[in-house]
Amino acid sequence: MIYNVSEGPIADDEQKVLAYLKENDFKRVLDVGGVQRPWARPYVTHYADLLHPDTWAKRYPEMKDYEGFWDKEFIVEDVEGSCASWKRFYGSFDFIICTQTIEHLRDPGELIRCLELVATQGFISVPHKIFELRRGIHNGYNFRGMLQHRWINSVRDGKLYIYPKLNFIEAMEFPFETVEHIPDLSFWWNGSSIPVEVADDTKFGFSDPTEAMDYFAEEMGK
Fold this sequence. Notes:
The longest helix is centred in the first third of the chain and has 15 residues, at 10-24. By secondary structure, the protein is of the alpha/beta class. The chain has five helices and ten strands. It has helices at 10-24, 53-59, 108-118, 129-133, 209-220, and strands at residues 2-6, 29-32, 46-49, 73-76, 95-99, 121-127, 151-156, 159-164, 184-190, 196-198. Helix content is 23%, strand content 23%. The two termini are 20 Å apart. The protein has a single domain (2-220), classed as Rossmann fold (3-Layer(aba) Sandwich).
């Protein structure tokens, strides 16, 4: 079940998560993909990432000064791997954090299936669709969103919808160019599954580019 969906500043939602973790005093909390910005480190016990923090710290030297971070347990794991590779962690954690990670992956749906097998509740944040559809986000360049992001995310009626960031969106116009406030998108989940629909390329049967653009215009307007 998805609940507490927020389209506000991510810092506000992170503070709510920190308060929740402090109140519940969980024994095992996993952060997936959060090594470079370990904002919940007072309560996280394990970090899972494709690269060891030592490798990340070569790119971001300030990580060496992260107080209370380097004594955590680090799981070097391909977060894009199949759920079978996570089997040893099934049911092992009380809470999972996964922030600003899903949009980078080749198969975000597979990671989400893994998360719900490893814990029964957690917090996920992703860039809002407005962020990914705005131009000039990445260092002022005129393409849409962040260069390294593969997906556009939306939550409607308690379900996460994930759309591929295909190149034809550069030829489209969206009603977000003049929006002053660009929100983040975050939500909590609790229960046996995270309702999600990934609109991957295999589901597209477009006969011409116009059909594809009409589909995206409709979906992004929801």
